[in-house]
Amino acid sequence: MPQSPANPPRLKVEHLTRAFGGTPVVDDVSLDVAAGQVACLLGPSGCGKSTTLRMIAGVERPDRGRIAFDGQPVSDERLFQPPEARSVGLMFQDFALFPHLTVAQNVAFGLRSGRDERDRRVAELLERVNLVGYGTKHPHQLSGGEQQRVALARALAPRPRVMLMDEPFSGLDNRLRDGIRDTTLEILKEEGAAVLLVTHEPDEALRMADEILLMRAGRIVQRGSPYNIYNAPADRAAAAFFSDINVIRGTSRGALTRTPFGEFLTPGHADGAEVEIVIRPQHLKIDFDRNGRGPNPTPAEGTPARGRVVRARFLGRESLVEFVMDSDGSRLTASVPNVFLPKPGTALWLMIRRDRCFVFPARR
Ligand SMILES: Nc1ncnc2c1ncn2[C@@H]1O[C@H](COP(=O)(O)OP(=O)(O)OP(=O)(O)O)[C@@H](O)[C@H]1O
């Protein structure tokens, strides 16, 4: 739904700022999340994600900035509503179920309605999280995944306008996690809350988010759909956050940069400026050596360059092959689906998917 003053986003955060001991930890963060939308705050440990979430929850006071739900301020220069007045659902890494309460009592905990309505809502949620028949059990009788689903049901029970989740899946077994993420996402979408999920795992953000907000040192450095963030990273660090990367350095002259893979267009970079051409391992293509010759250059893949295999590893879904390049001794890594394990020393040719390269100014 388009947003306007008459139709404000479910969650709106403007210029949120918080310092600890003089060090800014959250620095001018603004974001919007619509009802039914999942936004992921993604960034390395310590970048300020949890502090942002805690301010929106109302358990941490901002130094500056405004927070509004459906256009109604819950925190600004004058106002600071406590968490219980905000209609937020909270879910953290340790689910913190009440051990002495049953599953049904845990789910009913935040419900203020009459008994019939409460029982109806608990039954509805237990069915939705696939725990029919578990109502009388206690948390210690449940697996980690089941406990996580109870926590989700408990957080959603009062129909919060905004759902805040801080690394909610990180305590779970790796094999369970993808399934639980998908189920959780389905339920969140059905319930229609605005969801802000904090994670340091790019895979989780790519899987769950409608919008990713990439955070670094207290600031949001890029925002966009998973597709855009992955395929058009704002800088080298943003590219490197999602996968291993290869970096080919060169000097831009007349908007062209010469590399072992031919010339690359580098418009917008001054003459003599050092640039970095960044390419993910899966976008390097490998071809065989034909008596010292490689494949013919193509417009899309440019000039091939020869290298020798240093190491090849099988990682299950893919094989990673590391090369040292003949031309300048630089190291590059290519990823190949399935099994491809050439012996060290094998000469092979590499080509670069030019439409998948990113060009950035070189880091000093
Ligand atoms: N109450 C506090 N007092 C002092 N420093 C704090 C406080 N809370 C957080 N910090 C500091 O602020 C920085 C950001 O912490 P925050 O928990 O927001 O980061 P994060 O991105 O969520 O990291 P993680 O994923 O490790 O939880 C850290 O350096 C942390 O030590």
TrEMBL record:
Do you know which CDD domains this protein is assigned to? Answer: ABC_Carb_Solutes_like
* Example GO biological process: quaternary ammonium group transport
Please give the coiled-coil regions recorded for this protein.
none
Q: Which InterPro entries match?
A: AAA+_ATPase, ABC_SmlMolc_Importer, ABC_transporter-like_ATP-bd, ABC_transporter-like_CS, ABC_transpr_FbpC, Mo/tungstate-bd_C_term_dom, P-loop_NTPase, Transp-assoc_OB_typ2
Do you know which Gene3D superfamilies this protein is assigned to? P-loop containing nucleotide triphosphate hydrolases
| Gene Ontology MF: a single term | ABC-type ferric iron transporter activity
**Single GO cellular component term:** ATP-binding cassette (ABC) transporter complex
Q: Which SUPFAM superfamilies match?
A: MOP-like, P-loop containing nucleoside triphosphate hydrolases
The residue ranges of the ABC transporter domain are: 11-242
The protein's UniProt keywords, in alphabetical order, are: ATP-binding, Cell inner membrane, Cell membrane, Ion transport, Iron, Iron transport, Membrane, Nucleotide-binding, Translocase, Transport
According to its UniProt record, what is one Pfam family this protein matches?
ABC_tran
What's the name of the protein? ABC transporter ATP-binding protein
> Which source organism does the UniProt entry give?
Cereibacter sphaeroides
